[in-house]
Amino acid sequence: MIDHLPRYERIWLLLGIGSIIVFLVVLGTLGIFVGLNPPGHMRTIAPEEVAATAPFDEPGVTQLGPNEFRVTMVARLFAFDPGEITIPRGSTVHFEVTSPDVVHGLFIPNTNVNIMVVPGHISEYTYTFEDEGNYAMLCHEYCGVGHHVMMGKLVVQ
């Protein structure tokens, strides 16, 4: 079958096929026998019911304890709700974000906050804001013609 190929091409072809087989065996072993899989605790929500389902019917900031907050957000064409968030310095923030319409993103530059917001899913991320300042909240997934105006503000005092 590959006898018509030059010797070195056959060697590289066999090395490539061998690498793919090894990769698939390792991946299968990790997934099936070791149990390494993507997190399965993903929460879902019906996109058409976002506005009527708690806690997304009243998005905002909830204090959970000293310097610990939950931010419930809805990303929709072409805005974040709430659009401005204020928290004290050193606060740990548990983001809880969903979308009723299209795929959005929540990106806060100079932090590790980078969340993909998919309709029907509740995306969660936790981050501690150590430095004071004004942080932009940007949509980093193209969501339509008004994508460039989709931004919010997070103020750390």
From TrEMBL:
* Name of the protein: Cytochrome aa3 subunit 2
Reaction(s) this enzyme catalyzes, per UniProt: 4 Fe(II)-[cytochrome c] + O2 + 8 H(+)(in) = 4 Fe(III)-[cytochrome c] + 2 H2O + 4 H(+)(out)
- What is its subcellular localisation? Cell envelope
Task: Report the protein's function.
Answer: Subunits I and II form the functional core of the enzyme complex. Electrons originating in cytochrome c are transferred via heme a and Cu(A) to the binuclear center formed by heme a3 and Cu(B).
Q: Give the main location.
A: other
Q: Record's InterPro entries?
A: Ba3_CcO_II_C, CcO_II-like_C, Copper_CuA, Cupredoxin, NosZ/Cyto_c_oxidase_sub2
> Carries keyword Endoplasmic reticulum?
no
